[in-house]
């Protein structure tokens, strides 16, 4: 059974993942893991919700996750090469801590936002 397509708005511009001080791998790793949560995906499918990342950086992030044993890259033979990425059992084990970090970020969203705004210098010119 084929999974439904990934939504383009899966990661809102103001998503708590950008505000959370908790990181899983590089900037994009947590979002990639979320994209693979329901099953294997092709590179072009990942590009839909991860449209803000360049192809080069997405490739680097995927390679890093593969190197760390969190995802598996499978190249399918055929007249047109098709590559899929999927979570390994180790990668799948990241979902529970990620859920906890996301819940914490949502719970503390206002505090995190206030701290971020307080630390951002006023850029208004006189």
From TrEMBL:
Residues 15-113 form the HTH hxlR-type domain. It comes from the Bacteria. Keywords: DNA-binding, Transcription, Transcription regulation. The keyword Flavoprotein does not apply. InterPro entries: HTH_HxlR, WH-like_DNA-bd_sf, WH_DNA-bd_sf. The keyword Lipid metabolism does not apply. It holds the Pfam family HxlR. SUPFAM superfamilies: Winged helix' DNA-binding domain. PANTHER family: TRANSCRIPTIONAL REGULATOR, MARR FAMILY, TRANSCRIPTIONAL REGULATORY PROTEIN. This is Winged helix-turn-helix transcriptional regulator. It comes from Streptosporangium amethystogenes subsp. fukuiense.
